[in-house]
Specification:
single chain; 143 residues; mainly beta; two-stranded antiparallel sheet; 1 helix; 41% strand; disordered N terminus
Length: 143
């Protein structure tokens, strides 16, 4: 299963990282003429985080979410203030166990869906204790 370990709190006002940004987009097809300079810095908070006071970074272990582009060792940016909805990728606590799954709200009840055919859907029974801990907004994937 895709278990999450070690949430790290991003403190309010702290910069996640500031990096140089190219003034030109990079072609993924045919190469374009290269530019020999960068156009200053950008703060990745502005691009990755909407609410720093409720945002956490969690590391994924396992391969149950590979179909959603989430691999073992990736880090997810999770916003605890967002309202989970059908189709959201969520960090859930099911009967005391943390997991990352796609939330499905069906007429028959709540389902935590893996994005790997090797893992079955988890149908949440009425007797289960389910808490949606947060909604994943970004995946930091190693290339």
């Amino acid at each position: 299963m895709g278990v999450i370990v070690g949430p790290r709190v991003l403190t309010a006002g702290a910069s996640l990282i500031s990096v140089l940004v190219s003034p030109m987009p990079v072609a993924a097809g045919y190469p374009s003429p290269a530019q020999d300079y960068f156009d200053g810095r950008i703060d990745l908070n502005a691009h990755l985080i909407k609410d720093i006071t409720s945002t956490f970074v969690v590391r994924v272990t396992g391969d149950s979410m590979e179909g959603a582009g989430i691999s073992d060792g990736d880090e997810l940016i999770v916003n605890r203030a967002l309202e989970p909805k059908d189709g959201s990728v969520v960090i859930a606590v099911l009967d005391g166990e943390l997991t990352v799954k796609r939330l499905r709200i069906t007429p028959a009840g709540v389902v935590l869906q893996a994005e790997n055919p090797r893992y079955p859907d988890i149908r949440v029974s009425a007797l289960s204790d389910l808490t949606v801990w947060g909604v994943a907004t970004r995946c930091l994937h190693h290339v």
